[in-house]
Each structure stands twice: as structure tokens, then as C-alpha cells.
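Page header: ASSEMBLY MODEL / two components / 930 residues total.
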Amino acid sequence: MRALRIDRKLTRFAAARVASAFGAGRGAVLGPLRLVDVTAPSLPSADWFPVTPIRSGICGSDLASVDGRSSLYFEDIVSFPFILGHEIVGEMVADGIGADGEPLLAGQRVVVQPVLGCAARGLELCPACRAGDVGRCGCLTHGHLSPGLQTGFCRDTGGGWSEGPLVAHASQLFAVPDDLSDDDAVTVEPMACAIHAALRAQAGADDTVAIIGAGTLGLGVLAALRFLADTGRSPSPRRLMIGARYSVQRQMASAFGADDVVEPRHLDRAVRSATSSLIVGRPTGRSGVLSGGSDITIDCVGSAESIAEALRITRPGGRVVLVGMPAKASLDLAALWHREIELVGAYAYGTETVAGESESTFHLALEMAGTVGTGRLVSASYTLDRYEEALAHAGSAGSRGAIKIVFDVRPKRAVSQRED
Amino acid sequence: MWKGEGFGLVKLPPGSRVVYAPEPFEALEDPEGAIRHALEHPTGDSDPLSARLTPGMRLTICFDDISLPLPPMEAPDIRQMIIEAVLDAAAAAGVDDVVLIAALALHRRMTEPELRHALGHRVYDAFAPHGLLLQHDAEDPSNLIHLGMTKHGEDVEINKRAAESDLLIYVNINLVAMDGGHKSVATGLASYKSLRHHHNPETMTHSKSFMDAPASELHTANWRMGRLIRDAGVKIFQIETTLNTDTFPGNFQFLQKREWEWTWKDRATFMAASKALDAAPPKMARQVLHSIKAPHAMRSVYAGEVEAVHELITADVWAQQGVAVEGQTDIVTMGLPYISPYNVNSILNPILVACLGLGYFFNLYRGKPVVREGGVAILFHPTRPEFHPGHHPSYIDFFEQVLTQTTDPVVMHQQFEEAFATDPWYIHLYKTGHAYHGVHPFYMWYWCSHAMKHLGRVIIVGGDPATVRRMGFHPASTLDDALEMAKDVVGPDPTLTHLHTPPLLLADVT
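Prediction written out in full:
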């Protein structure tokens, strides 16, 4: 079967970094990613099951891998070579069991919760996994699997960017309701991230929430905040603001319930207006710190600039939630210290406590995908043959009027049947 | 044709009509003498100034701010000449409690160089160091007084020091016909609470035009308030002045001539100046143009009772600037210069571009607009999304937060105005910096209400497309393109009239 695999070749990583200077995703041309024939991964144990991907999304962390720009932090928690793709909707190859212990039938659609925690690794559950917080599992290099924080970064599991099966542990499998489209389903994983981030924000009814970044994650967090409020699971923030550069992002942000959709460069001024704050110092409008600011700022970009902006526009004592995957960054943390701002990371998912009830983030995401119709975020799909185009498209999605780019990896026979 | 920080020649279609400003009237030979005569021979029901000045009285002299005249005039400024004469009279009468107040309304505070230019060094140095030269603060409740409400339910709240003085002298520069009269005190010294009653879409839409007092709801509202101020016991001695239309100095005089009257020197100067300005970065071109001081000369001065003075002065303004225009046109073209009342020493940002074209130039008429209802206005200006962050902070947010949602003055009045008007940062910058009040961009947009309702389309030639579209207008790259676009609205073979201003003109349209 064919798959898009990343090999550990330092020269190719270096070339990818150079190529990516011309745009995110351009590292696909010269970098470590190759479309290769591989054999399907074997099942690590009896509670693992083969899943044939149908669709698999392209995420910012995937682009960072392709471009050789991932943080060195991840060096020890991935294992080469690995097949990318962790946003996956697929079909069970054979009968199996899902995360809730329910039976899954061959041919049934599932989404894969990709974190490879203790259960998947055949380990006794660590405290985090025991609490259901699989995203916080610290045993990502142990057990009967090679290191890998998620499916799509581990050499033993395969990944979503393949035309043949990957393998998934029962704890990773969630049945997809029949009325959920493939596009909705392929967004379940990023929406689970978004829900987790929204809950990490702990937004109250009086809070002004500012979101930096209006890609899949930013829009997802926005939709999640509204979804959680609309379903009575958390308070509805007083005001939801988002900086969105491109018209497709602005339209989607409005559709997802933002109160204010502004140009990213104007978000600081919009937050100032909304919170009746002053800009400290001269009225330059750009570099000034706000006297007050948003109660919560959710950074869905993860760059030094976006974190610095978040610190500028968040009120003293407020909270910054870091959702976008950061890398090595150089920034001035004086505002964080002086304004006693809480900086909170938000990675992945697990079990959430909402309105006093424990719920799996993936179950919440499945419900949200159907309710909100997050499949609208999917702008284009490509076959694996066209991976260079797909990654270039994903790397410049906003400017090309797109949000989420996915691979359509259905076997050709299945494609023709569906199109018939 | 002006196009912001530059100008050029534009070939109008055959048969186009160009309305030029009248030739400047001769200046008064002895302006100081005319001022002294006006002060001692008042108009209307008023004693001479010397008879109204007594030892121990509280005297407040208010004056028009940086927004007048345009461009700022060569020294000595008309305000300096008048205030020096008034102060001489006050000194002769033994009046020693004198305060000067710049009547800012919601405009930005003037800088020291601007005050020195308007008042002269002698007056500035005599008052400013002692805290006796003030700038009206519409956001200082302790120095505002509510005098009552008109029968129309309008709050009248003005500067307390001015209202409680034994005599309030107001020094006007009546650059256009809407300046002066009761508007001086009722607007220039008012608070937002008071101004909002007439600076709103309803009033602006029903002011046809601002220059035609009987047809101006803005004028009517100010008159109601002014009479309430008078009836509340505020003693006002009004001084109003007119200037001639001598607008550009020396080498730039060709800008106020008819092109066919240009000499070879004018042509050469035009070529050099237009090329140099086109080549210069906008910031540099602005600096050059804002350094221009107009050779405006005083044409007339009257003093005394507000309404009587204003009636005479308005007639003089019309005499200088009035141009008989027969019949309306399908298309009106206007070249917008670098300056408007609200960007002296600053940037003509997109909202001010709209206001200058549709709020001011469109309204330079009496009778009926130069352009017919449903017609097209074609403006020339680069309309870059540039703002002065210190002078126009709320304009930046208005452009990003309001104009992205609506261009309808009524909707923005209902949904956005109050938040901007009460925003603490804008108030802070208005009170302590040199910023226009937070509500000011709304007022600029409201000034356009009548034009926007009247016109079928507004096209800006050379304007930044995204900026122009955000304001609800249409961008065009050339006049030919604009004319093609206009034909969709007014049909083939339209009539076209070009308003060749500045210098200022008032079209008397029959």
C-alpha cells in the first residue's frame, strides 16, 4: 500500500527548512516526506484493530514535520520512519471493540483518538490515564510500542495518510454516527482539541474572550465555546472576539457565533474597545499594553508574536491559553510577570468534567461536529498522489480561500463505488 | 484637480461645466482700524464694547480653534488682531479677570505652536503661563453648566466659566456661511450631552444645505439653543469676520486661477510642483503642503448682538463666495485637497475624505444641490487607509469596527455611537492629548448623510479599492472609468459639472 512517510534524514530536514521559507508546506518538495510503498503495520496485541482511512486531515503540526520546523522537544517522543496523519476517519477492517467497550463491526466508520497512552502501550495506567487525561500521559516512549505521542508520529501504528490500514487500540476507536458526513467526521479530532482548549479557558459568563488565529483551531475553539454554552455545559462568555485575516475565515467566524470578527492587526484595539481599557503610554495603537483587556485570550497560532500579543491584550490576572503548537520562541515575559497572567497550555483531549459530569472529549466532539456542522471547515481534498499540492494548499489555506485541507485516501474501488 | 497630497490636470468631457470660485475681494486697508470701529459701533441691540467693560468683572474671550481658517492664515492671524484689540479695551477699562478659551467643542486640543500662531506670542505669553489660556473641555463636568432644555427637549450644557462670566466675547472666523451665529457658543463650547441633539443623522439629513440657514436643521437647532443661552442670562458680545478667497501664497497662486489664465511661470510651477509632490512619499508631501499659510485677508468685521452680526456677515460670505449656477447636473466632480477642518497638521484619513467630499463640498450650495437627486459624485483622492494615531484614535476603530459592519448613519448612530462617545481611552486622549473626541468620526459620517441619501453613486478616482469599498463607495482608476461607471446610474450622455475648489465657493443653484 502507498503512504506518505517521514524518514529521519537530516539533509532532507535541512532542505525542507529552506524550502519552507517560500511558504508553509513547501518542504514537501525537498524534505523528508515521501510517497512510498509500505506494508501494513502488524497488530501489537489482541486489543488492536486495523482501520482503513477514508479521510485524513492536514494539521499545523503535520506541516511543521514536513517542513522540518517541529520543536526539538518532540525528538524523543516520535519514532522514525512514521506515516503522518492523526486526524482520521476510517472504516473497521474487521469486527472490533471501541473505546467504550461497545462492539464495532467490519465496515463501520470510526474516528481515531490518536494519543498513544498507557492503555495502547499495554502499560498499567499512569495517574493521568487513570483520570482519563490521556493527553497528559507521560509514558509515550514506553510499553510495547515505539515512542510516539500519537498515531501519525509512531513507526508501529501507521497513520492516516495511507491508502491501506493503520492499526488502532480499542481505547482509540469511536464509532461515527450514520448521519455524520465524512467531512464532519474528519474534523472530530481537531474539534476535540478545540473543546479541550475551550474548557481549559474556564470562561465565565462575564468574560470577554479573545481568540488569536482563525484557522481550523481558532474557528474550532470559537465554535466549541458556543457549542458548550448552547448545550448548557458551560457559561456563555459575555463577548467572543476573534482576529481573522481572510474573508473565508471571517465568514466562518461569524457563522460560528463570534461577536466581533476583526482584522488580526486590529484585535488589540478591538479588545481595548470592548473592555473599555486604555492603552498604556502613547496612543500608538500597536505596541501598547492595555490597562485592562480580555479576561481570557486563546492563542491558536503559537508564535512568539502571537504569545506576545496575548500577553499585551489580556487583563492583569487574566488567562492566556496556548493552543497553537509553539516551537522555540524568544519573547519578553515582563507583562506575564507584572500583570500576573496565567499561561495555560492546551494539548489534545481526554476526559472532561463539564457541568459536573465526566464526558469523553471525543464524544463531545462527535456531538459538536453534527450539531455545528464542522465539516464546513473542509475546503478541499486531495489524493495522496497530489500531496505536494495538498500541502502547499494547506500551508497557504487562508490566502487561497480555504480552511481545512484533507487527503481522500479511500481505495480507488471504494471511490468509484461511492461516486456511482 | 486636487487629489490629496498632489494635483494634476484632468481632461473633462466636452461640454462639461466648471464652477470656479470668485476672484478674491480686496482686503480691508486698515483691518486694525476696522476691528476697533466694529467694537465701538456694534450691530444690533448692544452697547459698544468699552461700555460693557467694567473693573472687577469676569471677562471670557472664546475663539475658533485650529479648524479655521483653511489653510491656516499667514501671521498675524485674524484672531490675534481681534483679541489684541479686545484686550487693549479691557485693559483700558481696568478689567483684570480675563480668561481665553479655545472653543474646541469635541475637536482636538491645539498645540502650543498652533495657539501661538492663532493668538500671537504676546497674547500667548501673557495668558498661558498663568493658566488663563484654556481649551474647552467637553468632558470636564466640573466646568460645564446645564442651562436648561429647549422646547424640543434638547439639553443645553456649555462651558461654565464662559456662561458665568459677566461678559462672553466670541471671536469668529466665518470661513463659510454655516460658521458663526449661535453655533459659536451653542456648539463650540458645548458638551457631548448637548451636541448629540443636533449632530445626528436626522438633523444632518434635514440640513439642505448647511450653508443655507433657512433650510438647515442644524442651524435651526443651534438657534434654539443659542436663544436659550441668551434667555438664561449669558451675556455675549459676538465678533464675526470674513476673509477673502485669497487662499494660496506666492508660487502656489496658480491653484486659484482658471487654468486658461495661467502664465508660463504658472505652468512651469505647476509642472514642477505636481511632479515633485507625486514623487514624494505621502508623509513628505503632507509636510510640504501643511506648511502652506494662506494669504487670506480680512474682508469685513462686525461685532455686537449675535443674530444681527451674523446676518450681516453671512451676506458678506455669500457676496465673496457665491456663484450663480443654472440648473443641476447629472455628475459632479470634485478634487479633494490635502486639508479639511479636522486634519490641520494631520492626515486626511478615509472618513475625513468622505466628509470633505460629501459633507462639505457637496453642501456648498443654496437652493438645490449642484448634482441632481440620483446623480453621481466623482471624487479624486488616493483615500489610503492612513490615520494619525494621536489625532484620530477613534477613527481607526471606527474604520475597523463600525464601517466593517455598516455604512448606514442611522444604524451606526443607534448601535455604536454611545460606546465610542463614552470610551474612557478616547476621553483620556481628548482631555490630555491632542485627540478628537471618540464620537467625532460618527459626526463626520453623519455630515455625509444628506449626500449619501441624495446621490445614486459615489466614485473615488485613484482611491485605494478596499478602503473605498468599505465605505460603500466605488473605486475607479481614471476619470474615464468613473464616467463609464456613472453611466450605469445616470444613463448615456450625462451632464457634468466640476467644482473647482479650493478656493471656497458657494453655488447658488437655480
